[in-house]
Each structure stands twice: as C-alpha cells, then as structure tokens.
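Quality-control log, excerpt.
Job 1 of 2 completed; input and output follow.
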Amino acid sequence: MSVLRCLFLSLFLWPAALAADPIEDVISGQLSEFREGDVLGAWAYASPGIQAYFGSPDTFGHVVEEDYGPIWSNKAARFSDRDETDDRVRQIVVVEGANGQIMAYAYYMIETENGWRIDGVEPVELPDVAV
C-alpha cells in the first residue's frame, strides 16, 4: 500500500477513533446542566421511569441537591469501570463536588427510542487508584 494511501486512510479513520461515547456524553451533559443550575436540562437526561418516579423536575432537583451534593455542585468528573448486561449499562463515575468532596457513583443507563438515558444513580465505593 502506498504511503499516500495509508496517510489518506489514517486521516479518514482518525475522527472515528475520536468519536465520543454516547453514554459518557449523556452523563457529562447532565453534570453540565447541574453545574449551570439548569434542573430542567438535567431532567431531560433522565429515563422515562425516573421522570415518572420523581414526577416533576422540581422534585428531582430537590432530591439531587439534598442527597447527591457532589453531583449537584460538580466541578469535575472521571469515568471509571463499566459493566454491561442485556438491557442496562452500569457506568462508574468519580465526581468532585465544588467543596472538593470526591465521591463515586454508579450510573445505570438504558437505551430508549430517544437515545441513552440515566435510569438511576447510587453512591459506590471509590475505585482503587494506582499511585
């Protein structure tokens, strides 16, 4: 294969290798909405089941603010382990709150007709980090 052809294929395939992960995009999007104080925007990332459970964006926002402080006031997040089953993905996310508190959360994701949505979040132990 010629050098020119290899270069062309590399340039053509390179953007695909950098394509964003849709699950990480959804979680990052919701975290961004919380950072901006946009509860309605964050609500849009929740699954229909979560929306039915909370009933309104206001109730949803109140619970996140009260019980998930680092998510509510997040300033950084890092994606860790991921497990997949037939119908759900469990993505571990390490979140740093505005006050410096670092917590790990399991985000349960489902794929809907409107794309991936967050179907639950629970605190988990921080993953081991090699130094």
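Job 2 of 2 completed; input and output follow.
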Amino acid sequence: MWKKLRRSRSAMIGICCALVGAAAVPIVSFATVSGPVGDGPMVMQSGSTSVTYQPATNVASLPATSFKQIWTRVGDVVHMTGVIPVQAAAANTDTQIYIPLPPEVDTAFPTHFDCEGTAVATPPNDSMADVQAAVTTGHTHQCLAYYRASTTALVYVFYDMSYRIQS
C-alpha cells in the first residue's frame, strides 16, 4: 500500500488522518504571526549574554569562564539556558546560585513562581536542581538555582528555565 502512494500533500494528509481516524482537512500553509497578539505586540528576539553568577548559599567559588547564557524571546515569554561552574563550600548541603537575566529581556519578579525551570549538576553529583524566581531584596531581577552539593569539587550546573516579562 505504501509504495503505491505518491509523495503529495493530499496523500500524506490522507495517511495522517487515517492513522488518527480524523476527517481529511487539507493544510494550506503554516500560520505566520505578526502584529499585536495577546497582551502586546508580538516580539521575537534571541541572543547570548556573558554572565556573572552570584553566590547565594553554600558557595565557595564561582570560577570565571567563557560560557554564555543563551536566550530566546517570543512575545513576553523568555526561555534561557546556561552553565554555572560552582564549587560548594560544604558537601551534602543545599547550594544556591543567583542567575542574572539578560539586559535585553530583564524583568522584576513579584513571586517565586514567575520564573521556573530545572537544572542538573554534573558528576560526581548528577543532582537535579530547581530554578525559580529570586524575590529577596536586591535580587528581584534574578532567578535562583537550588541543588544539593554532594562534593566540594568543581561541578557544572546546566540550567533550562522560562519566565514571562512582567509589565
């Protein structure tokens, strides 16, 4: 049966719809979004930023590196990824590091839930981490990565997080 079908849009739609049991609806093209949408104008940006992380709790050292924080913005939602080199002051202790926001997509966070994400510390740790908005005085434009340090050796904490720009 598959060999008899030609590569065409109608054949592919027929196969896809038959597999899911839906009626065949032709797809004309993908939608392009521009102009005002939702809470404001549709903005699409991306970039990378050199980052200076700040210690919060149980941090002996945050060695300087050439790692960059990578970010994308679609509308008022920003997605960021990055790497934090960190040496904990004590093993088997909760460790926290402040993650600054890129200046191009900076915002203040009223609650901890306004920035959310995950992180993982590299071996020998392999510990999962949580990322949330920092709301302490002087750090309301930053997020906070939490992880449990199992060693005082240098580890790399890889994070992935998203937040909405507050108006």
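Post-run check on job 2. Confidence is low (pLDDT under 50) at residues 1-20, 24-35.
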